[in-house]
Amino acid sequence: MQGVRCSSHGIHTATLTPDASDLHGPGDGVRIRTQSASICQTDINLANFGELPFTMGHEFAGVLDDGTPVGIEPIAPCGTCQYCAKNDYHFCERGHAMVIGIGRNGGMAEEVLVPERSIVPLPTGLDVRDACLIEPLAVNLHALDLARLRGDQRVCVVGANMTGFGLLGGAGAVYRGCEVAVEEEAAHALEAAERMGMKSSPEGLYDLVIEGDGSEESIARAAERAAPGGTVLMVAGYYTEFKNFKVLPFMAKELTVIWGTYYGHHSTGRDADSAAMMLAQQPAIADSIITHRFPLEAAPEAFELVRSDTPSLKVVLEP
Ligand SMILES: [Zn+2]
Ligand SMILES: [Zn+2]
Predict the structure, then answer these.
(1) Are 288 and 195 contacting, i.e. CB atoms less than 8 angstroms apart?
(2) 83 C-alpha to center of ligand 1: Å?
(3) How far is the CA of 50 from the centre of ligand 1 (A)?
């Protein structure tokens, strides 16, 4: 079978043998035949490290052996550590080694073995070709919960271009009844934002600012956009050491900074199930965010597109 790997020469599609050693015991794995796998900012950052000892892809969906289409919450927590015992399984002591496509073989492949617990049933109305968005949307919904977002708050997304990640947070805030604006220069990202019910020209200051770019410059703009006493929600990937991080506006306005990285379980269920429901009810999200689809063999071109200046948001591989 074919799968996407990263070697010292970059991204390529390789012939692989399905690897049962990824599973932790007999009977706890199911085979998923991947139908959609999207490229994340994290995949680009991982590929910059060079050779990776696993198949890539943590945002994916597929079909079971009996043909049932399913989404995936791509983590394999131990189930027994102190965090798993409290159902805070996203803090499992296995750490990033438990993340499918980041610490173990992922879904940018014709097939992948996942623990049964990772399966997310697809609600009516959500196509498996779009269900790769469950994971990035779940990260954003989890982050909005951490920020204790209320429907009467004004929200601004700053930096919406890189894979459209922050726009998913904006879409989550629209879904919860908030007025949401986007500060971004890329016209295609603004157009997508408008289609999802956001305004393309921010005015004034905002209770919650979602930082979706990851650069120092974007963080500074996010702090500027935040109202005194407001919150900056950091949902992008932050992999570089900042040299000129401007602390002053955070201090002067007594801003709260919240980091959103994972997804997990809350009182009403899993973030991944909430994300699947929202995508089913709001088809405009997938229609607006997914800009390109490539066959699996074209993974190098697909990664190149995300890195390039050519306009794109979510780029999806279809094995
Ligand atoms: Zn991701
Ligand atoms: Zn654990």
Answers:
(1) yes
(2) 22
(3) 18
CA of residue 238 to ligand 1 center, whole Å: 12
Q: What are the structural domain ranges in the chain?
A: 2-135+263-318, 138-259
Distances (CA, A) of 203 to 165, 176, 182, 224: 22, 20, 10, 12
Q: Which ligand is nearest to the CA of 88?
A: 2
What is the tally of helices (H) and strands (E) in the chain? 10, 16
> Of the candidates 187, 183, 217, which has an alpha carbon nearest to the alpha carbon of residue 202?
183
The beta strands (E) that lie in 168-261 are given as 179-183, 206-211, 226-234, 256-259
DSSP structural state of residue 123: P
pLDDT at 241: 85
Using CA atoms, how far apart are residues 232 and 217, in angstroms rounded to an integer? 14
* The pLDDT value given to residue 238: 87
2-135+263-318: which CATH architecture? Alpha-Beta Complex (3.90)
What was the pLDDT predicted at 162? 83
Query: 131, exposed or middle or buried, with CB in 10 Å at 0-12, 13-18, 19+?
Result: buried
Distance 15 CA to ligand 1 centre (A): 24
What single DSSP character describes residue 104?
Answer: B
Q: How far, in Å, is the centroid of ligand 1 from the Cα of 287?
A: 19
Class of domain 138-259: alpha beta
Cβ distance 233 to 260 under 8 Å? yes
DSSP string, 222-241: HHHHEEEEEEEEE-S---S-
For the chain, list residues with pLDDT below 70: 18-28
Q: Structure tokens of 47?
A: 């590929």
